[in-house]
Amino acid sequence: MEKIRIGLFGFGKTGKIIANEFLRNDSFLLEWVVRKGYESHHKYASRLLGYEFEAGDIYSMTDITDTFFLERKVDAIVDFSSAAGVYEYRTAAELKIPIVSAISKYGEAELKQLREYAKSTAVLYSPNITLGINVLLVAAQVLQKIAPHADIEIVEEHFGEKKEVSGTAKKIAEALNLDAARHVHSIRVGGIVGNHQIVFGMPNQTIRLSHESVSRAAFGQGAIFAVKHIINQPIGMYHMENIIADMFRNHIPVY
Ligand SMILES: NC(=O)C1=CN([C@@H]2O[C@H](COP(=O)(O)OP(=O)(O)OC[C@H]3O[C@@H](n4cnc5c(N)ncnc54)[C@H](OP(=O)(O)O)[C@@H]3O)[C@@H](O)[C@H]2O)C=CC1
Ligand SMILES: O=C(O)C1=N[C@H](C(=O)O)C[C@H](O)C1
Fold first, then answer.
1. Domain 131-213 of CATH type 3.30.360.10
2. Per CATH, which fold does 4-125+217-249 belong to?
3. Which one from 13, 43, 105, 162 is the annotated catalytic residue?
4. Residues with CB under 6 A from ligand 1
5. Is the ipTM of this complex over 0.90?
6. Residues forming beta bridges with residue 34, ordered by sequence position
7. pLDDT, tens digit, 9 for 90 and up, residues 168-219
8. With a 6 A CB cut-off, is 167 part of the ligand 2 pocket?
9. 112 catalytic, yes or no?
10. How far is the C-alpha of 124 from the C-alpha of 180, rounded, in Å?
């Protein structure tokens, strides 16, 4: 069976792990990686990650010309770079290459650009691409409907250097119609990859829905799930929580 060819944006703390998850999965071929600078320029991501084979030719964003995506065909683009990365694959969208964006903090302009791409190709955007967080997101909205009077607070924990408030927590707050500035509480310690807890407080009981990304490989597994889904979809914008909500609908136990 033909391998699914991947073009990856970003080779940082998370991008390297994402690259590794695609490299170790026989269904995929990591064709190239694009990063901001020239570190490891034209080396192979596979070699840098300890593999004996050559895959994932590393480019800089400055290498992207109008013919880049024509000359280096992929079946999907996966973006773990930065918000600015979204402007670099316009011609890929025009070529109808599906796009999975995992950027957690977009401004309005970048989000608008991503929505523009969804008029030409299939785009999946997820500020937290783990299956677990998206199950939590759907479950929390169901629970809020079941217990509409519960007090709700969101706690997010990340590694000490993370500057911005968790995009995941903001998305959870938005889904629950909560003011993120008041209801999201951030903890920055050590090397925590990403933990999120939604606390539902009621007079006689507390319900806590929580998710812990133990390893950044969880994001790679989510990206793999997202690519396998998106490459078979028609043009449009997709989100992980919609896919998970459909799975809830199809699997809810009937007593
Ligand atoms: N959706 C999800 O589940 C998750 C999302 N994320 C998000 O992924 C993104 C990356 O996170 P992380 O790896 O920790 O960040 P890092 O800062 O460690 O890495 C960023 C990478 O992107 C590259 N880069 C930055 N700007 C551009 C650009 N304009 N074009 C191409 N490459 C670029 C950098 O290149 P260089 O190496 O040359 O500097 C670097 O390789 C963040 O938005 C983060 O929030 C992270 C984890 C999970
Ligand atoms: O920066 C990260 O690492 C992460 N960012 C995302 C966020 O801000 O929600 C997702 C994940 O928690 C890790």
1. yes
2. Rossmann fold (3.40.50)
3. 162
4. 9-15, 34-37, 39, 61, 80-82, 84-85, 88, 102-105, 126-130, 219
5. yes
6. 9, 59
7. 999 999 999 999 999 999 999 999 999 999 999 999 999 999 999 999 999 9
8. yes
9. no
10. 23
